[in-house]
Amino acid sequence: VIYRAREEGDDPSGALYSVRTSRPLERRRFHPELLVQSRFRWTPDGCRVVFFARSLADGTLALHSAQQDGTGTPTRLSSSLVQFSETLFFTPDRRRVVFPAHATSWGLFSAPLDGSSPAIHLSAPLPYAGDPRMSADGSRLAFLDGQRMYTVPPDGSAPPLLVADPLMNTRDFALDAGGD
Residue 157's Cα: distance from chain center in Å? Predict the structure, then answer.
């Protein structure tokens, strides 16, 4: 079981803990130098958890992943962020996590879950990427930039493609199973 809690004297953000049902009340705190800033998400294979956290050492906010039992050092998946959204998408191949966040501006980012390479800014050079949606097959993401809608592959293999312009007050949209 993994849970987020705040201890007496802790930062209001709290920390992540794991406890085994075979050893109740013997909890393990995930890395003590990270203050968890968001809800955590299980990776699709159930082996890791992904969460936004602030480092006590240098104050940076970043996306991290950690082993599901809280052992080992969490892997940092993003550069320093200003803000984040609670929205996280995992690609069907279970290799990447896609997330909207504010680094130098609001954007849509994609990072390998193993931390093997830096996060990619999928929505660059657009100034904003909001309300992202992923197709059922994971081949495309759609997002809004003001009154325009774009799609982009989650691995960053192509730049954003303008698919609708202009849009007025659009917030309800979806991609089909094949990414259209």
Answer: 19
Question: Is the Cβ–Cβ distance between 142 and 103 less than 8 Å?
Answer: no
Residue type, 128: Y
Q: Which residues pair with 42 in a beta bridge?
A: 49
State the pTM of this model. Answer: 0.85
Residues 68 and 70: their CA atoms lie apart, in Å, by 6
Identify the residue whose tokens are 């849970």.
3
Give the three-class secondary structure for 129.
coil
d(Cα 45, Cα 67) in Å, to the nearest integer?
11
pLDDT in tens, 126-135: 888 888 889 9
DSSP class of residue 81 equals: B
Q: Which amino acid is at 43?
A: T
Could you tell me the maximum CA-CA distance found in the chain, to the nearest angstrom? 57
Q: What is the DSSP letter of 58?
A: T
Quick check: 9 pLDDT over 80?
no
